[in-house]
Specification:
The complex is a heterotrimer of chains A (about 160), B (about 290) and C (about 775).
Chain A lengths: L2 E8 L2 E8 L4 H7 L19 E4 L2 E4 L12 E3 L1 H4 L7 H8 L9 H14 L5 H7 L11 H15 L1
Parallel strand pairs in A: 1-5
Antiparallel strand pairs in A: 1-2, 3-4, 3-5
Helix pairs in contact in A: 3-6
Chain B lengths: L4 E3 L4 H11 L3 E4 L5 H6 L7 E4 L9 E4 L2 E5 L4 H6 L1 H6 L1 H8 L4 H4 L4 H7 L7 H6 L3 E6 L6 E3 L4 E3 L2 E2 L5 E9 L5 E8 L10 E10 L2 E10 L6 E2 L1 H7 L6 H14 L10 H20 L5
Parallel strand pairs in B: 1-3, 2-3
Antiparallel strand pairs in B: 4-5, 5-10, 6-7, 6-10, 8-9, 11-12, 12-13, 13-14
Helix pairs in contact in B: 9-10, 10-11
Chain C lengths: L24 H7 L15 E7 L5 E7 L1 H5 L3 E5 L8 E5 L10 E5 L5 E2 L5 E7 L2 H10 L1 E6 L6 H4 L14 E9 L2 H6 L3 E9 L11 E6 L5 E5 L7 H8 L6 E5 L15 H11 L3 E4 L2 H7 L6 E9 L5 E13 L5 H11 L8 E10 L13 H19 L3 H6 L23 H10 L10 E14 L8 E8 L5 E5 L8 H13 L6 E5 L16 H28 L6 E4 L2 E4 L2 E7 H10 L5 E7 L18 E14 L5 E11 L6 H20 L5 E2 L2 E2 L18 E6 L16 H4 L1 H13 L10 H10 L1
Helix pairs in contact in C: 9-10, 10-18, 13-14, 14-15, 16-18
The chains are: A alpha+beta (about 160), B alpha+beta (about 290), C alpha+beta (about 775).
Chain lengths: ~160, ~290, ~775
């Protein structure tokens, strides 16, 4: 198998890893770099569970070749916040009951962060549009929208 | 596909020499939102992937001399965010904003969307209505300028040669008097493949239609222009009768199929309805 | 809201933790990305498995040649039916009664014949996923395609293609007889007769089926899998020819279940491959594989005939229910029973005749899905109610009010409802919230409003001797451990136990640690299905915690010189009720107990009250422990030219008994409603002669955030449930009536009824054309 050595900055840490040309960023993150917080719901961009930030932009990691992340910064859920230093979005998700089975949560937090970085005063409809590429089968989206909207409100005050 | 190779050239020379060496077994990849799923189900099994993202200078949106030019590697979300596009070609903004999902739009490129040539591709109807042309670069010979209505030849088939690359999409900025609209009908409101999509641009001189461009998606083997509808409109004072006639004509101009999303009959009906509405809304002064 | 019934368990007039919107304790792990879901788990030396699946929905298998696959470097095992110790097992339902038709054949790998497209034919384990995928292609299967049968009505005919081996396609049937329907119809001024059809629905959980298995030193096969039923270990042991105590199933935190992870999915394949290779093995389905091969909601053909007087009083109901069981029996008999018992809806009808049958076809097999047979009949009976209302010029609420069941009244199956029945309350409240009809924004738009009421059981069928066990212990420092076999599918199952324990023992929720879902290490709590966990494991945990509380209070009473019944546990102290300044730290009481050898742990078993099996000739009997009653409301806007529906309002008005965790209860109402919207307007596993035409999430559409709106919730807490603190199960009922409410709203808008789901734009346009 022909492999290539790539370098990515994963949640602030420089990582070097051997990849093949067809491995997706999702596969490499989960299988080679221990980033199992990134989820695989469909492997073809229909569900958003695999969303990560690639140089700050939210993308489906299943639709990005690992090679295409070479030299770039990848941020996953764990890079956004953890129990030692939770991100306000994570606190907000908990506070508003936005987590049921939790499988869509990683993708939702990633897109929420990217969205809120650009929009400090979103309407509910704008939030619905922002998360329209992320499927959730448990919550009906409502508390996720509550969490995102209230985080925006809280960070203003 | 065990030995798939990957290249991310920095310039055109590198690209074309790689294509020459692999003779038909190379595929371009830009955003990857189509290519990666194709490879996953082995619809496509190239031996070399040529990543176009090394061509930094193919990402731009420019307005110059009454023309808008968009670099082929411009992402759909950059098109959505562009003031120029929103102000000068609202229907393109609208189509871009409805493509896939916010996550997909961050990777998908306009060049990739057109090269994939899906009969339901969202960017093509507005570009057809805008009378866009595609500019290419080739390895052996000169690149060419291809009017978009000559670009698609079948489902997922274009006139592009193996060693031909889209570099730019270009269209003239519509006149101030022109109005247009893009409507997409899908089975849900996001991440949905069009059942029917339509782009209409009409240039009015008082009550009389000077110029009409009508393009439809998902109702034929390729995106098409409804030439008969356009002829019907041009030179006419548009009233309800004319609009109804156009709604009838468009049913004959399209050749939809029945699939799991909709029957051919429904697509004909929907095309007719959407055309009517598009014209009515454009007449009301929907922006361009 | 009615007052909470006085419960013996609590000495307090109010609740400390119950009902407060507290964060679920598993939620923090999820939001930090720490939860180890099934596919996140890895072991050193792990192999990767893949499943070779049938290419035809009906065919004889002439030969399977695995030699090339076996010789591919990196392949460690290739197995077919002949390699399985017991490839076929029969599952019998019910313990003491032998009843025909309730035996389900479970076949691990197809042997001589395939019955549905996607049936597993062979399994592979290899060093990498890529090699396993390559090896799949090298397995050569020779098929002889057979005609197959794909319509249950066809399959019922005696001359039909036989799906199984030598048995009728009709798996089972039930009857309900009450009164004399012919008499009832004779007394009716209006009779409405319609046939309704509902499609297969995919659970579409975002986490595909997945698991990892390994063999322990002692020869125990360990399977860590996302499952709603860890107790399949017994079946798996039988497949493997092993004693039950040699198979251990560990349930991982589930990324969505909804009934789709209720049957065995990957477990048998994993057990076989780890047993064969002696290496750990992982198997994760692709999305396409999941849609292709796992169970679906039963499609039904529902023929209803309902008669009423001109005042709207229901006189007679005759229903014929036919469910498409697909290729294998699985839970079809039970789903059908639920449909049969709920076929009348929450209405008092003097004459009832229900005949139901479940039929095998060569479609993907149908089995459990949230609402389990009750949602299909609800679509039919609530559409019928609105049709009656229309023909009698009554409003939807008027006709329902004339017929709703009440506490003390009996279902057509003879079962008397002995708790509060929240009708017309939930319907009136739903209407209130629905409010004035919105105004259309264009001439081609029509607005409609609709309501639908439902009854949905919670708790398993009462002849099943359902039990649940839970272990609670308190540490010397006052922290608490709960061990319970409960499987958590994201509905807060585990977390509710922490709530209940914290409430009873007077400690903060953070001090309670819950260990779940391990057949070797946690007392078995039964399935996470039938909205039963809160009722069952909740009650078991309540019982266990109360035993410990009793011991602690007796000791505290001794120390304080008070009477135990005047004490309570609050804020990590034993306190005197009404004089809470008089108290002892909990840890002191614990020390005192510990030093005297007084046990500070308890394993409690909660037995669901047992009732005899129903009489199959008349359908009379109890069947379910209790029901949740509620009403959904919807307002829709329909584009009459394209048929596209826009959801404007969604209302869920339900009696939840008691909201143990308010955010969770709301989350169920919201999630259930939206999943129901999907069923109503866009979800359909389209099969053509057994071939799935909706293989991925691009073709099988579930609602995105832009397809739905916020759900207005009315949560009534009657305290009338049989769960802890008067709670009712809400996981399923939250979905049951929304498709009917939307169908009624559509009919209200258009003036014409559509009898099939989903209500696609094309169906709407066709219905308008016809009228």
């Amino acid at each position: 198998m022909k492999t290539y050595l790539i370098e990515i900055k994963l949640n602030g840490e420089l990582k070097k890893v051997e990849v093949t040309a067809q491995e997706t960023l999702l596969e490499v993150l989960r299988d080679k770099l221990g980033a199992t917080d990134v989820k695989d719901g469909c492997s073809k961009g229909d569900c958003g569970a695999c969303a990560v930030l690639l140089d700050g932009k939210a993308v489906n990691s299943c639709l990005t070749l690992a090679l295409q992340a070479n030299g770039k910064e990848v941020t996953t859920l764990r890079g956004i916040g953890n129990e030692k230093k939770p991100h306000p979005i994570q606190n907000s998700f908990i506070k508003h009951g936005a987590v049921q089975c939790g499988f869509c949560t990683a993708g939702m937090v990633v897109i929420a962060k990217a969205f809120l970085d650009q929009n400090q005063n979103p309407s509910r409809q704008e939030i619905r549009e922002a998360i329209s590429g992320n499927l959730c089968r448990c919550t009906g989206y409502e508390k996720i929208i509550d969490a995102i909207q209230n985080m925006a409100l809280e960070s203003k005050s | 596909m065990g030995e798939l190779e990957y290249l991310i050239p920095k310039d055109f020379e590198e690209i074309f020499s790689a294509i020459e060496k692999t003779k038909g077994l190379a595929k371009f990849i830009a955003g990857g939102t189509n290519i990666i799923p194709y490879m996953r189900v082995e619809t496509m099994s190239p031996e070399l992937l040529i990543d176009l993202n090394g061509l930094e200078d193919l990402k731009y949106i420019r307005e110059e001399n009454g023309t808008i030019t968009i670099g082929a590697l411009t992402t759909i979300s950059d098109i959505v965010a562009s003031e120029v596009i929103r102000n000068k070609s609202q229907i393109l903004h609208s189509a871009a904003n409805n493509l896939g999902s916010p996550l997909i739009r961050n990777r998908a490129t306009i060049g990739g969307n057109l090269a994939d040539a899906s009969p339901a591709a969202d960017m093509a109807p507005p570009l057809l209505a805008l009378e866009a042309s595609i500019h290419t670069k080739r390895g052996e010979v000169e690149g060419r300028e291809i009017p978009l209505d000559k670009f698609f030849v079948g489902p997922n088939k274009t006139v592009l040669a193996e060693d031909e690359l889209i570099t730019q999409i270009r269209f003239p900025i519509p006149k101030d008097s022109a109005r247009g609209i893009f409507i997409k009908l899908g089975l849900r409101n996001s991440m949905t493949i069009s059942v029917v999509s339509i782009a209409v641009i009409i240039d009015m001189d008082g009550q009389v239609c000077q110029k009409a461009r009508v393009a439809l998606g998902a109702v034929a083997p390729t995106i098409i222009r409804a030439f008969n509808v356009e002829s019907k409109l041009e030179g006419e004072e548009i009233n309800e009768n004319i609009i109804q006639e156009c709604a009838d004509i468009v049913k004959e101009e399209i050749s939809p199929i029945s699939d799991i999303r909709a029957s051919a009959e429904y697509r004909r009906l929907a095309s007719s309805v959407m055309l009517k509405r598009a014209i009515q809304q454009v007449l009301k002064g929907e922006g361009l | 809201m009615s007052n909470a019934q006085k419960k013996e368990e609590s000495f307090q007039p109010g609740y400390k933790i119950i009902g407060k919107p507290l964060a679920r304790h598993d939620a923090w792990d999820k939001v930090f990305g720490k939860t180890i879901y099934a596919d996140d788990f890895v072991l050193p030396g792990m192999l990767y498995a893949k499943v070779k699946r049938s290419e035809y929905p009906a065919a004889n298998i002439l030969s399977i040649d695995t030699s090339e696959a076996e010789n591919l470097p990196g392949v460690k095992a290739v197995m077919t039916a002949k390699d399985v110790p017991n490839n076929e097992t029969i599952t019998r339902f019910g313990q003491t009664h032998s009843v025909g038709g309730f035996e389900g054949l479970y076949r691990v790998l197809a042997d001589k014949k395939v019955r549905f497209m996607g049936e597993a034919v062979a399994i592979i384990a290899a060093d990498t996923e890529r090699i396993a995928k390559e090896a799949l292609k090298l397995i050569k299967v020779k098929y002889e395609p057979l005609p197959g049968v794909y319509d249950p009505l066809e399959a019922m005919k005696p001359s039909a293609y036989q799906v199984g081996e030598g048995e009728s396609n009709v798996i089972c049937g039930y009857k309900v007889r009450k009164g004399d329907v012919e008499k009832g119809f004779a007394q009716s001024d209006v009779i409405i007769e319609n046939t309704y059809r509902v499609p297969p629905q995919d659970h579409a959980y975002i986490e595909p089926e997945s698991g990892v298995a390994w063999t322990g030193d002692d020869g125990v096969i360990n399977i860590r899998v996302c499952t709603q039923v860890i107790e399949h270990y017994r079946e798996i042991a039988e497949v493997m020819g092993l004693p039950h105590n040699k198979v251990r199933v560990i349930g991982s935190m589930i990324g969505g279940g909804f009934g789709g992870k209720e049957d065995i999915t990957v477990e048998s394949y994993l057990a076989l491959l780890t047993w064969k290779t002696n290496r750990p093995v992982k198997l994760t389905y692709t999305r396409e594989e999941s849609i292709l091969s796992h169970s679906k909601r039963h499609p039904y053909v529902l023929k209803y005939r309902t008669g009423a007087t001109k005042d709207g009083k229901l006189m007679a109901m005759e229903a014929e229910l036919i469910s498409d069981a697909g290729a294998y029996v699985y839970l079809s008999p039970w789903v059908l029973l639920y449909s049969t018992v709920c076929a009348t809806g929450p209405y008092n009808i003097p004459h009832v005749k229900v005949d139901s049958r479940s039929v095998l076809t060569n479609n993907t097999f149908s089995s459990a899905f949230r609402c389990f047979g009750a949602i299909q009949v609800c679509f039919a009976y609530e559409s019928q109610m609105d049709e009656l209302a229309r023909s009698l010029n009554l409003s939807p609420i008027e006709i329902r009010k004339k017929n709703y069941l009440k506490k003390g009244k009996a279902l057509a199956t003879g079962r008397v409802l002995d708790h509060y029945v929240a009708f017309p309350e939930t319907a009136e409240k739903a209407l209130e919230v629905l409010g004035e009809k919105s105004k259309p924004e264009s001439p081609y738009e029509k607005i409609g409003q609709g309501i639908a009421s439902s009854m949905q059981s919670y708790g398993r069928m009462v002849f099943l001797h359902d039990t649940s066990r839970s272990y609670v212990s308190i540490e010397l420092d006052g922290s608490v451990i709960v061990r319970c076999g409960v499987q958590d599918l994201g509905g807060g199952q585990a977390s509710s136990l922490a709530h209940i324990t914290a409430e009873v023992l007077g400690v903060p929720m953070e001090d309670v640690r819950v260990y779940i879902a391990d057949t070797d290490l946690t007392p078995l709590a039964g399935t996470t299905t039938a909205s039963r966990q809160l009722y069952m494991s909740g009650n078991a945990t309540l019982k266990a915690a109360n035993e410990i509380k009793k011991s602690l209070l007796i000791k505290a009473a001794e120390i304080l010189g008070k009477r135990a019944k005047n004490l309570d546990l609050l804020d990590k102290k034993a306190v005197v009720i009404d004089e809470t300044s008089t108290s002892i730290p909990l840890t002191d009481v614990i020390s005192a107990c510990a030093s005297e050898g007084i046990p500070l742990y308890n394993v409690a078993q909660f037995n669901a009250p047992f009732r005899e099996l129903i009489d199959f000739k008349t359908g009379q009997g109890q069947v379910f422990p209790d029901f949740t009653f509620g009403t959904h409301g919807a307002e829709v806007s329909i584009d009459t030219e394209t048929g596209k529906i826009k959801i404007l309002k969604l209302i869920a008005s339900y009696d939840v008994g008691r909201a143990i965790n308010r955010l969770s209860a709301e989350g169920q109402l919201e999630g259930g409603t939206i999943q129901g919207v999907g069923y109503a307007i866009m979800e359909d596993v389209i099969l053509e002669k057994g071939v799935t035409l909706t293989p991925s999430y691009s073709e099988y559409l579930v609602p995105t955030s832009l397809d739905v709106v916020d759900v207005d919730k009315v949560m009534i807490e009657s305290g009338g449930g049989i769960g802890p603190f008067g709670a009712k199960g809400i996981g399923e009922p939250s979905m049951t009536s929304i498709p009917a409410a939307i169908a009624n709203a559509v009919c209200d808008a258009l003036g014409v009824r559509i009898f099939d789901l989903p209500l696609t734009p094309e169906r709407i346009v066709n219905a308008l054309k016809k009228s």
